[in-house]
UniProtKB/TrEMBL annotation:
<dbReference type="Pfam" id="PF00650">
    <property type="entry name" value="CRAL_TRIO"/>
</dbReference>
<dbReference type="InterPro" id="IPR006797">
    <property type="entry name" value="PRELI/MSF1_dom"/>
</dbReference>
<dbReference type="Pfam" id="PF03765">
    <property type="entry name" value="CRAL_TRIO_N"/>
</dbReference>
<comment type="subunit">
    <text>Interacts with RIGI (via tandem CARD domain); the interaction is direct. Interacts (via GOLD domain) with SLC18A3; the interaction is direct. Interacts with SLC5A7 (via GOLD domain); the interaction is direct.</text>
</comment>
<dbReference type="InterPro" id="IPR011074">
    <property type="entry name" value="CRAL/TRIO_N_dom"/>
</dbReference>
<keyword id="KW-0734">Signal transduction inhibitor</keyword>
<feature type="region of interest" description="Disordered">
    <location>
        <begin position="167"/>
        <end position="218"/>
    </location>
</feature>
<dbReference type="InterPro" id="IPR009038">
    <property type="entry name" value="GOLD_dom"/>
</dbReference>
<dbReference type="InterPro" id="IPR036273">
    <property type="entry name" value="CRAL/TRIO_N_dom_sf"/>
</dbReference>
<dbReference type="GO" id="GO:0005794">
    <property type="term" value="C:Golgi apparatus"/>
</dbReference>
<dbReference type="GO" id="GO:0039536">
    <property type="term" value="P:negative regulation of RIG-I signaling pathway"/>
</dbReference>
<dbReference type="InterPro" id="IPR036598">
    <property type="entry name" value="GOLD_dom_sf"/>
</dbReference>
<dbReference type="InterPro" id="IPR001251">
    <property type="entry name" value="CRAL-TRIO_dom"/>
</dbReference>
<dbReference type="InterPro" id="IPR036865">
    <property type="entry name" value="CRAL-TRIO_dom_sf"/>
</dbReference>
<dbReference type="Pfam" id="PF04707">
    <property type="entry name" value="PRELI"/>
</dbReference>
<dbReference type="GO" id="GO:0039552">
    <property type="term" value="F:RIG-I binding"/>
</dbReference>
<feature type="domain" description="PRELI/MSF1">
    <location>
        <begin position="1"/>
        <end position="154"/>
    </location>
</feature>
């Protein structure tokens, strides 16, 4: 049945193909060893695959069947990135020593990540997720093929017998693999009233204290009032873990409610819960998280532009946190503060959430251990998909998931626009499965209908910006003035190299010499995204389409301008003999971008072919009523020395298959995903934004 999953298995979608590399059979056919090279399509974000430069991962698997001892041993290790990541897996099928009709299955694996482009913790999370899902599906797959064999009439496979010459040799008994001894249940344990599950748990760790005496029991009123419904086994796990902490942990012992969160996060597996709880306690001590609310004051930039805050409570009494993510300038916050300050602010929000849960438990007279988060995505656009910002978001999610488990009771995502599935595709693999089940997503105004906001929040406290009557004091966000941005040197000194990463390229634009980037599109409905800053001068941004490829790019020697451009380049693709409308066509209206502006946008391609992104020098128009130039034009022309502009840009193509499937649920959305550009400007006195949607 196991061999039937090769060369590929439809029940394992990521298992694409396999090839036999080596095979060996002993003369008596007792030993059969086969080695395969397996091709896997790992469920990882496109961004990570692009950074790694691979679409598939290859593993080598060696299966050793010993018919004499009736064992099958499976060993696997990774071939791809073996110098960066070492994965070893071992599985074995053996006969149960006490009942020959039973098959024992054991599985173990090890993971050692040496380095992975700065995404070590992300890779660890993906590997653990894939491994866990494979374990869960393993039994289902083997049963599927067993049933298939039965349908074909194969219900028995004759046991291997040695050739006649070897019979005397085979009569000697072969040593069996050691197995775990049966657990002996003492009579005293049953007298003390422990269930079988509790006895098994206490027997697995003899060194741990064994609960069961009346002194170790928690008061029933205390459980009902502060902890909620607990089974005897769950109560036993809580007592044991708390007692272990009291005996071994030298620092502050967390409250029962907090210990219980870690137990619930690991389905009351006491060993796993203890491991992540100890890691979290060490982390809290290292970063002084217990004192963050009393000792740390968030910078004024966060207080003014972080569009989130606490707002009453939901119908279940959970504290309600409102986040107007669509109105928040995530790129501006990261560039003004850096990743660490944002992370610290999110930690302070979580600590405040824990405090509010305790207060609401006292107010409502029942245990409240989590909060509800309402996220409004009105205004979300490609600016929010700025890669360093997404990277910072992933790190924040990782830290919160590890140290605040089971604190999110429900997440209400409102007014999700068309761009949301792209963000969700990047972020969702890093969110725990149990947490993802608590997400409710509404597109457009769906939240106002049946099953919407009123099912979870009282009408009296629905925020005013969502059509309610309650004034919400959450900051409105807005664009962070560029005068508050940190310099590259400051970020480098703090070891926060976010927006200065090499994915951004620098280009020079001259009068008569635009800079152009070629993008080949194979599948229609792909999405071209861009993000660029106009560092110097004013430019016009265009997008063109051509059915035929332009000639190889020619780099401007800059000789005509007598200007050298360190760190910048100039590439021209459109041949001077090409005619607009005949050889190529314009697919977007020209966008004029001023010096200092940041522009993000996207274009959904209608046809395959060649798309050209162009940054062109913008000439100042003269005043319409007179031939004399205006004062503003003269001053502006003086600022653009030698008719030179400079841009820093990043482009990426998102394949249609990466978002099309998740778009169907958002068809009712009113926000346009296609052809959206945002340009931002700021001055020392004010900041403003202009959205160009065509």
């Amino acid at each position: 049945a196991y061999e039937r999953r090769f060369p590929t298995c439809p029940l394992i979608p990521m298992f694409v193909a396999s090839d036999t590399v080596n095979e060996y059979k002993s003369e008596d056919e007792a030993i059969h060893v086969i080695e395969r090279r397996c091709k896997l399509d790992i469920d990882a974000p496109r961004l990570l695959k692009k950074i790694a430069g691979v679409d598939y991962v290859y593993f080598v698997q060696k299966n050793s069947l010993n018919r004499r001892e009736r064992t099958l041993h499976i060993e696997a290790y990774n071939e791809t990135f073996s110098n960066r990541v070492i994965i070893n897996e071992h599985c074995s099928y053996t006969v149960h020593p006490d009942n020959e009709d039973w098959t024992c299955f054991e599985q173990s694996a090890s993971l050692d990540i040496k380095s992975f482009f700065g995404f070590e913790s992300t890779v660890e999370k993906i590997a653990m997720k894939q491994y866990t899902s494979n374990i869960k599906k393993g039994k289902e797959i083997i049963e599927y093929y067993l049933k298939q064999l039965e349908e074909e009439g194969i219900t028995f496979v004759p046991r291997w017998t040695p050739p006649i010459a070897c019979k005397s040799e085979s009569s000697t008994s072969h040593p069996r693999r050691p197995v775990s001894p049966a657990i002996n249940i003492p009579e005293s344990a049953t007298k003390e009233g422990l269930s079988n599950k509790e006895i098994l748990n206490t027997s697995s760790s003899p060194s741990e204290p064994t609960p069961g005496t009346p002194d170790d029991k928690l008061d029933a009123d205390y459980i009902k009032r502060y902890l909620g419904d607990l089974t005897p086994m769950q109560e036993s796990c809580l007592i044991r873990l708390r007692q272990w902490l009291q005996e071994t942990h030298k620092g502050k012992i967390p409250k029962d409610e907090h210990i219980l969160r870690f137990l619930r996060a690991r389905d009351f597996n006491i060993d796993k819960a203890r491991e992540i709880l100890c890691q979290s306690l060490t982390w809290r001590k290292q970063h002084q998280v217990d004192y963050i609310l009393d000792t740390w004051n968030p910078p004024q930039v966060l207080q003014d532009y972080y569009a989130g805050g606490w707002h009453h409570h939901d119908k279940d009494g959970r504290p309600l946190y409102v986040l107007r993510l669509g109105q928040m300038d995530t790129k501006g916050l990261v560039r003004a503060l850096g990743e660490e300050a944002l992370l610290r602010y999110v930690l302070s929000i979580n600590e405040e959430g824990l405090r509010r849960c305790e207060e609401n438990t006292k107010v409502f007279g029942r245990p409240i251990s989590s909060w509800t988060c309402l996220v409004d995505l009105e205004g979300l656009n490609m600016r929010h998909l700025w890669r360093p910002g997404v990277k910072a978001l992933l790190r924040i999610i990782e830290v919160v998931e590890a140290n605040y488990p089971e604190t999110l009771g429900r997440l209400l995502i409102l007014r999700a626009p068309r761009v949301f599935p792209v963000l969700w595709t990047l972020v969702s693999p890093f969110i725990d499965d149990n947490t993802r089940k608590k997400f409710l997503i509404y597109a457009g105004n769906d939240y106002q209908g049946p099953g919407g906001l009123l099912d979870y929040i009282d009408k009296e406290i629905i925020p005013d910006f969502l059509g309610g009557e309650c004034m919400c004091e959450v900051p409105e966000g807005g664009l962070v003035p560029k005068s508050l941005y940190r310099t590259a040197e400051e970020l480098e000194n703090e070891d926060i190299k976010l927006w200065t990463e090499t994915i951004y390229q620098s280009a020079s634009v001259f009068k008569g010499a635009p800079h152009e980037v070629l993008i080949q599109i194979v599948d229609a409905s792909s999405v071209i995204t861009w993000d660029f800053d106009v560092c110097k001068g004013d430019i016009v941004f265009n997008i063109f389409h051509s059915k035929r490829a332009p000639q190889p790019p020619k780099k401007d020697s800059l000789g005509a301008h007598s200007i050298t451009s360190p760190g910048g380049n100039n590439v021209q693709l459109i041949d001077k003999v090409w005619q607009l409308g005949r050889d190529y066509s314009m697919v977007e209206s020209p966008l004029i971008c001023k010096e200092g502006e940041s522009v993000q946008g996207s274009h959904v391609t209608r046809w395959p072919g060649f798309y050209i992104l162009q940054w062109k020098f913008h000439s100042m128009p003269a005043c319409a009523t007179t031939n004399l130039p205006r004062v503003d034009d003269v001053l502006a022309s003086l600022q653009v020395s030698s008719h030179k502009c400079k841009v820093m840009y990043y482009t990426e193509v998102i394949g249609s298959e990466d978002f099309r499937g998740s778009m169907t649920s958002l068809e009712s959305s009113h926000s346009g995903f296609s052809q959206l550009s945002a340009a931002t400007t700021s001055s020392s006195q004010s900041h403003s934004s202009s959205m160009i949607s065509r």
